[in-house]
Design brief:
The protein is α/β, with parallel strands linked by helices. The chain folds into two domains: 92 residues; 227 residues, TIM Barrel. The chain is built from 16 helices and twelve strands. The longest helix has 88 residues. It is elongated and about 140 Å long.
């Protein structure tokens, strides 16, 4: 009760005591009648005692209520603490599980990369020591721009670069038309020698092919490219990446088995990867190659048909084989090269592509006029130096 309330209560008790002393008859005692002043004092004291009892009772009731509220809140806090402890335990368990899975993935990737490097070493002339760079010419060892004409030198340079993570990821944007919004990137892997010089593919592919090491190099570059794309995907999770897939790699059953296992451990990555396959490679695939494509498709991977020279394509079969894109040369498309020799009209092709859920990408676009002309063909996406040249990713290994 407030101070003002206390004063009001005391005044009320005093007034009531005075009224009682004035209006009530004086009680008789053996000693004589009680004076009105004494009666008023006795009534005032009685009122104070009653007020004190009432106040104590109300205070006790309020304290009991507050204590009950505190106990209820304490119980609630206890439950919340227990819940937080359970959530913290779950987070720790999940973190430990993910850490263990990540460690297992890294161990599996390291084992796969080591096996691929060993396979390249076995295919090199001169064996493993040669693959590690022994016997290389002095100018190549210094990182000068050499032709790498010797097969062993070429393959050994590549193997050494791969073993030391001297592989860079170059990306070229693929944009939607006519909005020109970046939707995908085509990925290119480039190798640096010990001095940091970037080796163009023509510097080593021919020599490596002559040595029989080209399939192993392709497998290694593909695997490293996918690893780099996975790292870049953390920064751009909704962007897709096109990666070249050669026939030798597709038909390498051992590699496909390992690569499928790798994708199985990184299931979320498959939806962001589109493997590009040349039309000539697709037409020459054998049974094992077709099985490999189906296996990758079942893991969620999708494909793009590249280096198209003929539009005599079974688009229904292409769609069933998990192809979602087809790339046509912009210059050839506008020059109506594809319409020659009785091939299908491009506008009719676009309708068929739409029917089978395959998008058309015009590549090698270099001028604004090409873009204007391509819109007549209802092209879905464009790629070329006009929209951006291949640039090194900031998320290289």
């Amino acid at each position: 009760m407030s101070a003002l309330g206390q004063i009001f209560a005391l005044a009320s008790y005093a007034l009531a005591a005075l009224l009682l002393a004035v209006l009530a008859p004086a009680p008789e005692t053996p000693l004589g009648p009680v004076s009105p002043a004494l009666l008023a004092l006795a009534a005032f004291v009685a009122f104070l005692a009653l007020h004190d009892q009432i106040w104590r009772w109300r205070a006790g009731r309020d304290r009991a209520f507050e204590l009950g509220e505190l106990r209820h809140r304490q119980s609630g806090l206890g439950r919340e603490v227990d819940e937080l402890r359970r959530e913290l335990a779950q987070i720790r368990s999940e973190h430990a599980r993910r850490g263990a899975q990540a460690q297992e993935r890294r161990a599996a990737e390291f084992a796969m990369l080591r096996e691929l490097l060993d396979e390249l070493g076995r295919r090199l002339p001169g064996g493993r020591n040669r693959a590690l760079g022994q016997g290389r010419r002095p100018d190549a060892a210094r990182g000068e721009a050499s032709s790498l004409a010797e097969p062993a030198d070429a393959a050994a340079t590549v193997r050494e670069a791969l073993a030391e993570n001297r592989v860079d990821l170059y990306l070229q944007p693929i944009v939607s038309l006519p909005q020109r919004k970046v939707r995908y990137y085509e990925s290119f892997s480039r190798i640096r020698d010990a001095a940091g010089q970037v080796l163009a593919p023509e510097q080593y592919l021919a020599a490596a092919g002559a040595s029989g090491a080209l399939p192993a190099i392709d497998n290694l570059l593909l695997f490293r490219c996918v690893q780099l794309v996975r790292r870049l995907r953390r920064r751009q999770p909704h962007v897709g990446f096109f990666i070249n897939l050669g026939r030798a790699t597709i038909e390498d059953r051992d590699f496909v088995d390992q690569f499928a296992e790798f994708l199985g451990q990184n299931a979320d990555l498959a939806g962001n990867i589109f493997f590009e396959i040349a039309q000539s490679d697709l037409e020459q695939l054998g049974v094992e190659g077709e099985d490999a494509l189906e296996r990758l498709g079942q893991l969620g991977c999708r494909f793009s048909l590249d280096n198209v020279t003929s539009l005599a394509i079974d688009l229904a079969a292409l769609g069933r084989r998990h192809f979602r894109f087809i790339k046509l040369d912009a210059g050839a498309l506008l020059a109506e090269v594809y319409q020659s020799d009785g091939q299908i009209d491009v506008l009719d092709l676009k309708e068929l592509l739409r029917r089978h859920k395959i998008d058309l990408i015009a590549e090698k676009i270099e001028t604004e006029q090409q873009v204007v002309d391509l819109l007549d063909y209802e092209v879905d996406f464009g790629q070329g130096f006009l929209f951006g040249e291949p640039r090194r990713s900031r998320d290289e290994a």
